[in-house]
Structure formats: structure tokens, C-alpha cells
Amino acid sequence: MTALSEQFGFQRELVLSSFRRQVRGVQEAYQEAEAMINRLVAWAKQRESAKQTKDALVLPQEWLLLRGPVGTGKTHLAMSIANACIDVGLVALFATVPDLLDYLRATYGPESDVTYDALFMQLRDAEVLVLDDLGTQRSSPWADEKVFQLINYRYNFGWPTVITINKKAWTYLDERIRSRLQDAGLVLAVDMDDAQDYRPRQGKNVRRRSSSAESAVSSEQ
Ligand SMILES: Nc1ncnc2c1ncn2[C@@H]1O[C@H](COP(=O)(O)OP(=O)(O)OP(=O)(O)O)[C@@H](O)[C@H]1O
Ligand SMILES: [Mg+2]
Predict the structure, then answer these.
(1) Where do the IstB-like ATP-binding domain residues begin and end (predicted)?
(2) Where are the domains of the chain?
(3) Taking ligand 2, which is a single-atom ion, which protein residues have CB atoms under 5 Å away?
(4) What is the DSSP string of 98-156?
(5) Using one digit for the tens of pLDDT, what is the confidence trace for 83-113?
(6) Would you state the torsion angle of the CA atoms of residues 7, 9, 10, 15, taken in this order, to the nearest 10 degrees?
């Protein structure tokens, strides 16, 4: 299962504890990601005990939408949720929407060893699904329809789903999808408007580390 997610760049080691929550504008997103993890982990444990009594437990209705500018940690948080779920035995899948569509298209081909239906159903029926970068796919009637089908199916059951979207992409989103994501009765939406791109900071950290390594080398010479 994780192998499928890895095709989309899923990193198994990305966890909530490596996310710096003190960074400006990310607190709410962090807290909601953490709360969702706690509820899903609790549910997984409940299911474990219910197995003995053979009670069937219905998946909790949990939708989280992280909407914000680039580099604000949306993917990091979304992967952290998937990882925490996998750790407790839930079937959690991660997919980046544009790559997913390429992948689905490829499964139409004669050389593909996965059938389109099987792949689509795996994603559709996953206990937890993370869809990263919604709305950045090149729009086409086919692509819009596939994404809509996937989201709509899970929406109808309320099955645990995490969606990340760039603020700009939100404006161009298929209105049928947008309407469902605006259902406040199901979807917890977090706007990360005040957060800033974290990537330049990462760069600084790396440079600082390598320049101190360089000076260590030069002082040894
Ligand atoms: N608060 C944070 N603490 C630690 N690392 C962070 C934080 N925010 C972002 N990062 C790191 O910065 C990089 C960019 O974050 P990420 O990919 O999650 O951003 P994003 O919001 O998904 O961006 P994009 O919209 O471009 O996809 C990642 O390596 C991530 O681990
Ligand atoms: Mg991202």
C-alpha cells in the first residue's frame, strides 16, 4: 500500500514532531492535524478491541482542508497524518493530484500491470486518503471528472480525507468540488494565509551548516 503512495513522493519519515509549530501562521493547521491524528488513532485502537467482539465499526467522518500559500507546510502536515495512521494499522494512501491523474491515464495503456479500476478503487476505498495539491492538475473534462468522482464518493460517506490546495488553485477549482469542500458540517477548513514560505529558511539552515563545515575544514588545513 505504501508503495503506491511512494510513487507520488510520499515520505514515510515525515512526522508531526519534525514540524515547527511556533512558525508564524501555522498553529491552527498544526493543531487540527494533531487533533485529527488523535481521533483517528483512537478510532484505530477502538477497532482493534472491537475485533474480538466482531463488532463492525464505521469509519469516523473526518475531513481536513489545508489551504494556503506555497511552502507553508501543507504537504508536511498531510504526510504526517498519513504516517500516523499507517503506524496504527489504518490503510492510508497519499497521492499528489496531478501525478495521480498521469498515473491513472497510464493505467489505461496495454503495458500497465495495474488495471485502472483496481487503482481507482484502492484510492476511493482507502480508510484514509490524502490528496495533495488539488487543483494544480491541467484541467480537462477527463481530469475534472476523475477527481470529482474520487472526492464525491468519499464525501458521500464522509470517509477520512485530507486535501491540500494552493490559495490560487482554489479560485479555479471545479465548482462541484469547491461546493463540497465548503460543507462546514463535514470539512474542517484551515486557511494558512499568514504563513510564509518555509523553503528559504531551510536553505539558510543548510548554507549555515555547510559554511560552518567549510570553515572547520579550512581551519584544519
Ligand atoms: N513549520 C515547519 N516546520 C518544519 N519544516 C517545515 C515547516 N513548514 C514547512 N517545512 C518544510 O519546508 C518544506 C516545504 O514545506 P511543504 O512542502 O510542506 O509546503 P507546501 O505548503 O506543501 O508547499 P507547496 O504549496 O509548494 O506544495 C518541506 O521540506 C517541509 O518539511
Ligand atoms: Mg505541497
Answers:
(1) 58-168
(2) 2-215
(3) 75
(4) HHHHHHHHHTTSTT-SS-HHHHHHHHHH-SEEEEEEET-SPP-HHHHHHHHHHHHHHHH
(5) 999 999 999 999 999 999 988 888 876 777 7
(6) 170
Span from the CA of 79 to the centroid of ligand 2 (angstroms):
10
Probe target for ligand 1 pocket from 72, 163, 194, with the most ligand atoms within 8 Å of CB: 72
> Which residue type is seen at 101?
L
- For the chain, the average pLDDT equals 88
Please state which of the four CATH numbers 2.60.40.640, 3.30.360.10, 2.40.10.410, 3.40.50.300 is assigned to the domain occupying 2-215: 3.40.50.300
Residue 150 CA to residue 159 CA, distance in Å, equals: 11
Q: Ligand 1 atom closest to Cα of 21?
A: 1
Question: Per-residue pLDDT tens for 162-171?
Answer: 999 998 899 8
The rounded Å distance from CA 219 to ligand 2 centre is: 40
Compute the Cα dihedral for 48, 54, 55, 59 and give only its sign. positive
Residue nearest to atom 31 of ligand 1 (CA): 76
Ligand 1 pocket residues where CB is under 6 Å? 19-20, 23, 26, 70-76, 133, 166, 198-199, 202
> What is the whole-number distance in angstroms between the Cα of residue 140 and the centre of ligand 1?
28
Cell matching residue 45: 485502537
Assign 3-state DSSP to the chain and report helix, strand, coil percentages, each to 5.
55, 15, 30
More confidently predicted of 213 and 88: 88
| Distance in Å, CA 129 to ligand 1 centroid | 19
